[in-house]
Amino acid sequence: MAYSDKSETPLKWHRLRQILIMPATILALGYGIACFVIDYFKIDFPGFYNIVSKALAKLDIDLHVSGGLQKIILIAAACMVLVFLLELLQWLKSFRWKKTSLVCEILLSVLFIAGSCFAIYAMAGMGYAAKAAEIASAAFNKRIETLAVNVICGIFFGVVILYALLNFCYYIKRRKLYGRKKNEDDDIPFIDDTAELVRPVVEPTPVQPAPKPEPVVENVRKSDDLLADAPEEIEKTAAVLGLKFCTNCGTRLSKEDLSMTYCKYCGHKFEKK
Hints:
The chain is mainly α. It has helices at residues 12-40, 51-58, 68-93, 99-125, 128-140, 146-173, 223-229, 231-241, 255-258.
């Protein structure tokens, strides 16, 4: 299973390394580097227990004697410094899953395996296991065989190699966790709040003249209505046209209306001449 979500990925081993194994490894490597630097440069540091100097003295190894062994020791010390820096960087990055963390983990696995193989070769192939057996026999007042020292060193460095291989497989399986997961906010364009706001230039919309209201043409009143506004003109017009109209409302009267004494439309009383 290729894990891609940290919420669904088991990270118990990662937390154990982060809390216990990596800090212990960093402290051990830092102490070893400090011992090597103090012994190589002959720094007087009272009260400091230099275990590296005592071990090299018992193995009859002098760092200041030029030769092939000195070069090997210097190369080993340089590798130790590199492992220390990578382990420290990896421990600091273990709290945040960055892409470079996977590269550091692969380099650490390669260096742990190479250093362990070289240590096994030095103990078994270069005769340092026999010297270590003599030192252990003198310390415990009991004969310790060289084979036992080789077996103990083989088990120890074999565990280191297994540890590096398991870490390599563990983080390769979880390599997708180091990638940046795309969020919904990634599609939102970046807006610089510090930039000066530029208001868009809006062209004024031309104002169209309001349409002129059309003249309201009132319905032309009939002649009957016009005559109602001028009672004096009614009689003149009626005399000319031979018509009869009510002098009050101007309504044209029929023969039946003329026989009546009042206007049936407005109630005006007719004055008979």
